[in-house]
Protein: Sigma-54-dependent Fis family transcriptional regulator
Organism: Geomonas propionica
Amino acid sequence: MRARILVVDDELSMREFLAILLDGEGYLVDQAESAEDALSRIGGQSYEMVISDVSMPGLGGIELLSRIKSQCPDTAVLMITAFTTAEQAVEAMKLGAYDYIGKPFKVEEVKVLVRKALEKRRLVQENIRLKAEVQERFSFSGLIGKSKQMREVYDLIAKVADSTANVLITGESGTGKELAARAIHYNSPRKDAPFVAVNCGAIPETLIESELFGHTKGAFTGAIADRPGLFEQAEGGTLFLDEIGEVPLLLQAKLLRVLQEREFRRVGGAVSLKADVRIVAASNRNLEEQVREGSFREDLFYRLNVVQIRMPSLKERSEDIPALVEHFYKKYSLWSGSGDIITPDAMRVLYNYPFPGNVRELENLVERCVVLGSRVIALDCLPPAVREQRAVSSAPDGIGIPEEGMDLQAYLDNLEQKLLVQALDQCGGVKKRAAALLGMTFRSFRYRLAKFGMDED
């Protein structure tokens, strides 16, 4: 879209010269012979930019600038005058002028100033739009569902958002834990500060401390310059620590100190830095069980678990499936909102499917149907595993409790060992592949091997 510019000058020759110049650059140009004329035009037309003389009969250019900024603060204004003074320039800039140039001016100078002013205005407008989109996306409307379970989640987020309390979000993978964390941030007083997310399970043990706290030049091989960590990047905002259960014990102690003292040191640094950061942590594992096993510090758990929000699985809130399907269909297609988007048979299948991957799996399923060109989600566009309802049973066939009772923990330990061995056998002894086969991180897999004395080659 071509930018519209208003040229204001009491000299006809100057107005026409600027109009011809700017028209040649591709802009839409209107002319006004006075400040009063300009204000009447601005009242009925939106302008991206105004170029105005300072000295004009009647209302002057400085007063015009003041009124433009009062009525249309996002309009860029360039002031031009034959009698440049430092006082006028300072006053114009204080009132919000983009720049101030004197006559005679160079044609290229005007072209560059106009281009830069409009680009700056576009970037400001884009930033405002994106910020509004982000707040809309991660307000409660970013979490889809009206089930009782989701209403409880919304209620907790609303209560905790305005506080500074640490929050622990629990739930299975794919339930929307990061969405909940973002909703907390964007409904809090910190919403204009950064929201920084990190998956603790995706960072190697040797790098996670540097990633969180930063490092100084020469702290270790490859540290060629000072580097701020995520705590510094999230200053004044929220740091989301996803998969917090994967953090090594040694680093847990340092993380605890940050939460207690609100300060930290970069790796290799001697100066303590303040940490004005709100912590929201998440885990799909049972941290209380990890505390009992000794793989997670009890004191850190209680520091993080000031308020706990549990994200329900999709199976628990199946009544939200229609709304989620519609949301994801709109996201991935050009659907305008008229007509059905899913057949009754397909919806019935989705209701009965257990969705082990939760909302994330449903989103991928809808995206798959859109990519395959389905105007309506029908049975034939659903993945075979969903159509055939080959859901994984919650327990292997043949399990029963004998009359004399059983040692549940011993039984589960035995089953876990057998599955670890089976995974290693299927993957030729390659531990990383075996961990992936069982849907866990390499660190968790090694921990389980050590737990049963199976960590030796």
The radius of gyration is 31 Å.
